[in-house]
Every structure is written in C-alpha cells, then in structure tokens.
Amino acid sequence: MSGRGRHLAAVVVCVLVASACTSAADAPRGRAGSAQPDEPTASTTSTAEPAREGEVTLAFAGDVHFEGGVARLLERPRAGLGAIGRTLRAADVAMLNLETPVTLRGRPDPKELENAGDRYWFRTGPRALDVLAAAGVDVVSVANNHAGDYGAVGLQDTLAAGRQRGVAMVGAGRGAAAYAPHVVEVGDLEVAFIAADGVQREGSSDVWSARPGALGTASARGSNAEGLVAAVEAAAARDQLVVVYLHWGKEYESCPTHSQRLLARDLADAGADVVVGSHSHVLGGAGWAGDTLVAYGLGNFVWYHDRQAETGVLSVTLDADGVVQKSWTPARISAVDGRPVPVTGAHRRRAVADFRARQRCTGLATDRGAAQADDPAYESSVRRIDAALAERMRRSHRPGCPVPLRDLRYLRMTHRDFDGRARTGEMVVHRRFTRDVRDLFGRLYAAGFPIARMRLVDDYRADDDLSMAANNTSGFNCRRVAGQTNWSQHAYGEAIDINPVQNPYVRGDRVDPPAGRPFAAIDRSRSAPFRLGVIRNEDLVVKAFDRIGWAWGGYWVSSKDYQHVAARRP
Ligand SMILES: [Zn+2]
Fold it and tell me: CATH 3.60.21.10 spans which residues of the chain?
C-alpha cells in the first residue's frame, strides 16, 4: 500500500453510485453532506479539518443503543456521552455502531432466530443522534442485527434521521448501494467508511440483506462478502484510505472465528487500511494483517447493563500510506445510564495491558507489515489402532482395561493454540464417538476456541498429573477416578479433558493441576469476563458437547471438574 499518491484536496469524488454525487464544500466539520432524499443509500461526502497536516486521526467505538436506562441520555442530548466525548472529539472523524433503528414507526420484524429468547427489538427517537453528535460521533454503521428491527420503514427513518441530524450512516441501502462508503475529506486525504453485517441474519426479510430494489443492510455473509470486498477495492483504487466496520464474531467470545479471520485477510488484500468490528459484547484483540490494522471486537459502548463493562475507544492516526499510530482509551460502562466512563490510574494501565493481551489468540501480527497467521480449513482424520500406535499407547492401554484397543480410534484434528496458530492435534476416543468428536472440534475451530495442546497422554507417560500440568487436552486413558478404585470414563474413551490449567479439577481445597489454582474460583457465568481457554456455563464448548450428549463437569455439585466432558450414561 505504500507509495500511493493522494491528490484529492478539492475534488469531490462520487463513489460506487454516481447518481448521488454531493458537494460538501460547506458542510460542517465531519458532518454528512446532502444526499438526494430518495436515494438515502448512495455514497455521501463530508469534510473535516485535520489536526495535523498530512494526517488524519480516527476514533472507533463499539455498540450503542438507547434501551432501558440508557434512554435517560435522551433527556439531555447536549451532554452527549460525558467525558468519553473528549476522546471522540479529539479525532477528525469518530465512528461507532448504531445498534438500533431511529424510528417511531414500522412493525417489529418477524424474527426467526431459533431460540426465541435471543430475539430482541430495539428502537429509539431522533434525539439519540443528537446525543451522539454532541459526543463527537460523525459516522455510524447501521449494518447490524438491529437496524431492521422495525422493518424497512424503520431503517428508512433511521437513514432520514441521520441526514437531518448530521450523522453520516453507512452499511444500508438498496442492493449494491448498501456497500457505498461515506467519504470524508480531511485536508489532502480522503477516508472511505464502509460497513457490513456478518452475523447470522435475524429473519428472512430483505431488510437483513440488501437486495436490488429493496432497502436493507449490507451483508458480509458468505458470498455477499464479495460486494464488500469490491467496495473496498474500488475505494482503494481511488487512493482513498479505507475503513471497514463489521458486525461480526461470536457472542461472549473474544478470539476471532475462522470466518472473521478469513474476511479480515480478504479485506486486507483488497486494500483496507483499518478493519474494526463489534457485536460479541466483549473486547477482541487488535493487531496487523500486513499493512491493515484489524481490531476484532470493540465491545459494547453505550449499553443498558454493565455485565460486560470493559469498553473503550480505539484511536488511529493515518497518513497517505496508511496507519501510523494507534492507541486505546479504556472505559467502563456505567450501570446507571450506560455511558462509558474513562478509567484512570492503575485501572487504566491494567485495562490497556488487558486490551493488548487480547491480541494473542487473534493470529494478528504485532508489527505493521507482518502477516496474520494462516488459518487453514479444519481437517480431521480417523484410523484404527495399528501395531505401531499400540506400542506408543502401551502405557495408556494395558491388559485388563475395560475397552479393547480394537474399539478405540485415533483422531487427528486441527485446533488453534493460545497464540491463534493452527495446529494438528491427536486424540484417542471410543469408536462410537469418532464422528461426533471430529465434528465437534470442527465447530470449536470455526468458533475460534483456543486449545493449548492436544497430544496422547502417552507423551506424558499416561500420567494424568503430568498431562494436566502440561495443559494437555486429551481423551482416552485407562485409569481410575482420581482417589477411587472405579474406572474413569476416560478408560472407556468416552471423556475428554480440555485445557486443564484454565479448567482445573476442584475438590474442596484440592486443585488439579496445581497450576490451575488461579482459575479454581473464577466467575464462569456466561457473561463472565473473557479469559483465554476457559470453559464457562452454557458457552460454545459446553453447548457443542451437549449436542452430542456429553455433559460438563463444571455442572457437578460436590466437586467441579471444569476440564472434563463425558458421555451421559443411561
Ligand atoms: Zn476428565
């Protein structure tokens, strides 16, 4: 990307949809220009005065709505979002995700999500945009799973409110126009803001994926991602700096999914300078995919509860060749009115370090120019225990074990380690479970769940203590229940232990492995703060095993075996 020229000072560029070229010469700083009223979806432009010659600073934050207690912010819109507004206003352009339609009309969209408890309908009035504008927000993405909550009518009202209130909106339109950028001229630089929604659509209405002639949000799902990539390529070809804001990821999971990583790579290849996103409610890691700065998750930002309170603002400075600097301003969501309140002192230092640490499982590089780790397609294989393998397994399988070797199978499966790198793991399970277990680890891989290592226990002399101490994920081992005489379910090949250090076996004061002690009493509720490799109530690991009829030891009552999942017995 280096070396591309930008000579665009006074030129107003019409992007993608040429019919709606607008002049923004007299637009106020960072505010949307006037698009044609009946084409709310075509690209718009605005201008901003750069703080520094030849550079532009952008600020990004996560999900915002005005439900519940957040609605009280509408009573004093000029107060904006309080102190965090300083960070947003310090940037030439600030952008976040507007997770609500701005409408008092429309009908609730017939959502079809499998679990009725996951269906929510949000909406707010136009004052919400005054709050955001007062806080320094210039551009919002509406490409998310709530912009269509009140149908195309609600989405249309939202876009109209944005034009009236001077907040530029991206990520919705008719057909390909949904991918049209909002372009901001900052001195000699032009920045194109593009947004798309990559999470599961909420229903079959067109509003969840713009089709020709029908108003909807920009989709980044499956082959729709091609429209997004094409928009990025078009903007980059115009020598514009390109920002992509995505709604993506898995709820309550911080590590990126397989599809997020592939999309980030494609967008980087297409010439995006910055790729940011939100949706998962938790912060994700940030780092480099070549010359592209990627921040996988900006979390909730203005939200109606503080169960995932960690949030903040990502500030990014770019010059004509791309990103030159980034910084994280951490904040915590207030339980009272949902505003993010900047944290200070030691809390701030810890929050900044924590944000940095989240890069680890992303596979993103620490330095610009280096590639994101490759994320190959999931692979698995199965075979019988042959003579060579039997020899290798002579410690984990002995005469007298309750299952003969002929009933066991040796699996090789791709997994991602704690550094976000794809590895080939190995595991032995009973032949009854080979297909289920292979599929299951494929699901964990797709979801981005990290597994430290996955080797046969024989690499640890079939000693469970050694295997646990090495944080080894394993299946079959012909052994007794710890401290008892009866066979463990591992001896039948119908149990698996996952990341034993992060998920120790806790009985009274005893914690196995000893290295797991810091994890013995942590919060494992579904909304608990994210920790790498930890299994939590109802999380994707527990659910994936539940689907194959296996139960998690974290639900035991008298003791807790957080690493242990095993087949339910009749
Ligand atoms: Zn176990």
Answer: 11-362
